[in-house]
Structure formats: structure tokens, C-alpha cells
Amino acid sequence: MWEWQYEGACRGKDSAIFFHPEGERGPSREARDRAAKDICARCPVIRQCAAHALAVREPYGVWGGMTEEDREAIYQRKDLHLVG
Description:
Helices cover 50% and strands 0% of the residues. The protein is built from three helices and no strands. It has helices spanning 26-41, 46-55, 68-83. 18% of the residues are buried. The model has no long low-confidence stretch (mean pLDDT 91).
């Protein structure tokens, strides 16, 4: 079930790239998110990672090329779809 994580491009990288420190905002957060997404973009298991993050509603970090805000936007669209 979790074997896909062994193939992740993030494996062995500093987790600080994927998880922001408390209070990080603005250009520094955007740059860190961009660096994380660049790693995700060349990851062979990006789809599995993204599916996992969405399924468990991962609250923190960049997973499957998506930030917390990216995932929240997806949840909101799905919730609106269910209501309509």
C-alpha cells in the first residue's frame, strides 16, 4: 500500500522543502513551494502521492505536486459539486 513512497523523487530530500515553517509567508513560501513542486514534477509516483494526499485530506505540506491551498481548492470544488 505504501510501497510507492520508496520510488518518490522526494525520498532522501530535506523535508523542510515540502513543509513550511510556522509563519512562513510571501516570496519565501512561494519559492519553497515552487522548489517542492519542481521535485514533484519529475517524480515517477506523483499520481499515487496526489491520490493519497487527497484521500486522507493531508493537511500539511506539498504532496503530489499540490500545496495545502491547491488541495483545499480541490476539496471545495468537490464539495460544491456534491451540493449542486
